Amino acid sequence: MTFRDDAQLDTGGVSSGGGRGPKMALGGGIGGIVVVVIAVLLGVNPNSLLGGSDGGGSTTQVADNAQIANCRTGADANNNVACRIVATKNSLDAVWATQLPKAGVRYQPPNVRLFSGAVNTGCGQATSAVGPFYCPPDHTAYFDTGFFQDLKTQYGASGGPLAQEYVVAHEFGHAIQNQLGTIGRAQQDPKGATSASVRTELQADCYAGIWAHWAARTPAPNGGPPILEPLSQSDIDDALSAAAAVGDDRIQKQATGRVNPESWTHGSSAERQKWFTTGYQTGDVGACDTFRARSLG
């Protein structure tokens, strides 16, 4: 998916900068909700999971906004990953400002923070090893842009633009869950093939699909034409490639040679593709009720 070259970008609500810290072997991958939100909801100090401390980490955090300083147009977004995240946020905000009220809730745009190595968050200090994640206490989605290269080289995704935009849309999906009051269900059953955690992640995939459904049909936040061009089949293939790449079964098979559904937290590759497709084909929040679904695959 490409952005209109002349689309005007708004960097409001987006910041960049962050000190480098030690990498940590924390799972999270796409949707670090497993590490972050479970800790918050269960009363665990997320600092102990994310690498911070009660007294504040030694890493100096500076929002210098250098990564987004030159993000002005859709052409910038088409050529720069940081600007692509800015543009995707603009599009997501436009779509959800229209779609979420249909579910009876006024949309509150989440913030976005781009960082490198490590960052202090409302959920504690996080490192790049957690992967992209959304933190409910500060209503912010965090991205180390280096993850998108990892998505291609380590996870095997296609690396196309919509593969990257899908990741951003997935994290915004968690922000939508937070506003709808459903994100807390993840605490009820954190592991397993049909667990509440898996259902939470698959619902975020479905919400990402809803964005894809409406993105090229929704006017820009400034009232101009949609900032994204219509989807091609290649775009959809890119998104499905990313969804498959971060399936629990695929990651487990690659890491250990075995698949253990009892330890799943995000869902299988096929399930992630299915729920993104459900959102994309329907464009309907009501179609994303993974918690009532008898079958997830």
TrEMBL record:
GO cellular component: membrane
Keywords: Membrane, Transmembrane, Transmembrane helix
UniProt region (Disordered), positions on chain: 1-21
InterPro entries to which the protein is assigned, alphabetical: Uncharacterised_pept_Zn_put
Source species, domain of life: Bacteria
Spans traversing the lipid bilayer: 24-44
Coiled-coil region: none
Chief place where the protein resides: membrane
Compartment(s) where it occurs, according to its Swiss-Prot or TrEMBL record: Membrane
Membrane topology category: Single-pass membrane protein
Protein name according to UniProt: Neutral zinc metallopeptidase
Organism: Speluncibacter jeojiensis
